Amino acid sequence: MRTVIFDLDGTLADTSGDLVAAANACFRDLGLGDVLDPLADAATAMRGGRAMLTLGFERTGGHGPDEIDRQYPRLLDYYGQALDIHTRLFPGAVEAVEGLRAGGYAVGVCTNKPEGLADRLLDSLGVRGLFASLIGADTLPTRKPDAAPYLAAVERAQGALDRSVLIGDTVTDRDTARAAGVPVILVTFGPHGDGVHDMAPDGTIGSYNDLGAEVQRLIG
């Protein structure tokens, strides 16, 4: 079965506000205040908790890798307490996924967000039932850009690898697709904007209205 696998953060939904809020809660605990900006640092938020902590400590100085390791579980805890305050699905995402399903495509999610948090978020947004598979950062021993999570997302959606495509927004998604030997479509409405063109994807979309045509062009 033809299969479309989606990244979550920055692709299906803008989660940056809640991610940055969780990181800033950690910084406030350390007496550093709100170090990150939810708009200016949105692209870093899409790279995950450790990336946000690293950036914050680079700005404030005096904290090394050990402190990142200490703060990371706290960041996840803060995020888990408030993961859907500011998060919104991108316009047209639901309609695009529903259109793919109606067209006979299997759809799933492959994210570097921990699986439990991803499951809760998709459920809170009212779309968990649209996806036949969900692979998170801790579902398998490896995470994106390793190919294994993507392969598992396709398999659990009962799809065909050689007729599948990954929809994402970062170089991690591009590298995951390359590792799996499948095409990748990157969105230009995520934090990286038109900069995704520099990542040499197989296709781009500026709106979910364009997704169906791009998917059909690449995998039929």
TrEMBL record:
This is phosphoglycolate phosphatase. Belongs to the HAD-like hydrolase superfamily. CbbY/CbbZ/Gph/YieH family. Gene3D superfamilies: HAD superfamily/HAD-like, Putative phosphatase, domain 2. It is an enzyme of class 3 (hydrolase). It holds the Pfam family HAD_2. PANTHER family: PHOSPHOGLYCOLATE PHOSPHATASE. It catalyses: 2-phosphoglycolate + H2O = glycolate + phosphate. GO terms for molecular function: phosphoglycolate phosphatase activity. It comes from Salibaculum griseiflavum. GO terms for cellular component: cytosol. GO terms for biological process: DNA repair. Pathway: Organic acid metabolism; glycolate biosynthesis; glycolate from 2-phosphoglycolate: step 1/1. Its EC number is 3.1.3.18.
